[in-house]
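Fig. S4 source data, part A: sequence.
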Amino acid sequence: MYRLALKANVDEVITILLALIYLQFGIVAGVLRFNFMAWGAALAPYAMMQVLYMINDERKPIHWLSLALIMSLIAQVHLLSTVYIACTFVPFAIYALVKTSAKKQMIIDFFKALGTTLVLTANVWGGLLVLYSHNKISLPNQYNLYYHVVKYKKLINLHGFSLISMVLLLVFQLIYVLTHLRESVLNTMVTIIALVILLLASSLMPWAQIQAHFPSLKSSLQIPYRLAVGASPLILLGVGISMTN
C-alpha cells in the first residue's frame, strides 16, 4: 500500500498512514485466520499499480509484462483473488481503451499479458482441470451468499467486517470527490469504482434472490465480501490523493 501510494505521488507521511490503515481492513486482517485471500489482499496493491498506467499513461495503458507477473504471482497464492482483481480492472481498461490513441497496441499488450499469465499459471489451472474432470468426493463448500457479505461493526474488524470508522472515511472521501470532480480523474475513478464494488459486496445487493436463481454461485462465488479485495487499496489510494491535495 505504501508503494502504491508513492507511485501515485501521495505525500510520504500520508503513505505510511495509509499502509497502517490498510492492515486494518477486514480481508487483510483475515491473515490471522485460515483464509488465504488475506495473502491475495496483501499483494493486491501491487496489482492496483496497473490502474495508474491505465488512467495516466495514454500511450501505453497496459504494461503487459508487469501485469502478467503480478497476476501470475497472485494466482500462485490465491487463485480467486486473481479473478476478482481482474474484474476490478475492467472499468479502468474500458476507460483506457476509449482514451488511448494506440488502441491496437493496447489490445496486443492485453493478449501478451493474458498469454504470459496463462503460461506462468499452468500448474494452477492445469491441476484444477485434471482434478475436477474426475473429482466426485471433495467438491467446494457451499455458502449462504446473503450471510457472507461485508458487515459494518463498531469494534469488530476481522475477515468480512469493517469498522464504522472505515465507513465514515469512505463517506468523507466520497463527499470530497463529488465536490472536486475535475481535480483528479484518478481520484474520481478509483473512489467511485471502489465504492460500487463495496456496495456490490454488501447486503445492499439482493444476494438471497441471486443465489435462489443461481444456486451454483454458492460453491463458486461462495463469499461476496471477497469482491472487495481490489477495492480496498483503491479506496485508500483515493483517500491519500485527497489528503495530499
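Fig. S4 source data, part B ends here. Residues 2-244 form one domain.
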